[in-house]
Amino acid sequence: MNASKPWVIPVLSLTVLMLASASLVVGRTTLSWDVWSDHDLVRHTILFELRLPRTLLGILVGAALGLAGAAMQSYLRNALADPGTLGVSSMAALGAVVSIFSGMAGADPWTLPLFGVAGGVIGMAALFLLSGVILSALAVAGISLALSLSPSPWAAAEIMRWVFGALTDRSMDDVTIAAPLIGAGAALVFGCRRSLDALTLGEVGARSLGINLNRLQWQVAGGVGLLVGASVAVTGIIGFVGLVVPHLLRPFVGARPGALLLPSAIAGAALVLAADIIVRLLPGGSELQLGVVMSLVGAPFFFALLYRMRRKMT
């Protein structure tokens, strides 16, 4: 496989910057580029109270999901690994749903995100024992049970919000909550770069290089759990980002899994920003949920990838 291309990260970073700029001004109400100096209160409210938090969360969540997908594919050595397809996102959503169903979510702004992170970490830990299909089925069953026993319409609506992810109606409080948790998860995952590279030699080869595989396992579980849990806690389930991005980038970054992490994070941010802009511009009385749109895009990609892998095996 070719070596990493030096232009990948600069080009991806510039793409994110351009999409973030577009995200601030594009929508049902298009803002002019001089809105920063405009004294119109309504436009300032749209920019700073609605568009800015939405854009920042798009960057944070996209980066987190792209990074989580690259880490999972590298550690599990499974080209189809993704927080959504293996049930980790569903477990994080289940953690958030439990906090809503129990009424604990209203006690403190940090309660729901911490429950989401706990669900994500438990999901990653359980993934080492169970298959992704079983884990996803258990999480969906738990969410369905909470929905059917929901004590109020408000709780049911909140639960559905976590099933269909979106960036709408978010505030800077959500950014403040998600950013440190995602940052901590990213630090754990980036700390695994050398170990993930060594793991390409197999477990025996990695141990011969001094890699503590047990520590690596829990570091990946904690990092991915934080990334996915924090993302799901503020936006709900946005699937397939972690599946699509690493596959698109792998031909340009070479064979080292560690070299794939940063580009996947940046490209994940770009993908979520682009999808969110498209969601805003689609015709209709109300916006489609971002999670639904990503599933419509990601599902065909997943099946095409699966078909391609099966053909290689035959």
Outline the structure in words.
- This protein is mostly helical.
- The chain has a single domain (59-313), classed as ABC transporter involved in vitamin B12 uptake, BtuC, CATH 1.10.3470.10.
- The protein is 74% helix and 0% strand.
- The chain contains 13 helices and no strands.
- It has helices at residues 8-25, 41-76, 88-101, 111-127, 132-148, 153-163, 172-190, 193-199, 202-208, 213-235, 241-253, 257-281, 290-313.
What can be said about this structure in brief?
The protein is mostly helical and 314 residues long.
Instruction: Note the beta-strand portion.
Output: under 5%
Tell me the CATH superfamily. ABC transporter involved in vitamin B12 uptake, BtuC
Could you name the ranges where pLDDT drops below 50 across 5 or more consecutive residues?
A: none
Q: Please give the alpha-carbon distance between the first and last residues.
A: 22 Å
- The pLDDT mean sits at 87
Which CATH top level class fits?
A: Mainly Alpha
Shape: globular
How do the helices and strands follow one another from N- to C-terminus? HHHHHHHHHHHHH
Using the coordinates shown, work out and report the CATH topology. ABC transporter involved in vitamin B12 uptake, BtuC
Would you tell me the structural class of the helices and strands? mainly alpha
Architecture in CATH? Orthogonal Bundle
Number of domains: 1
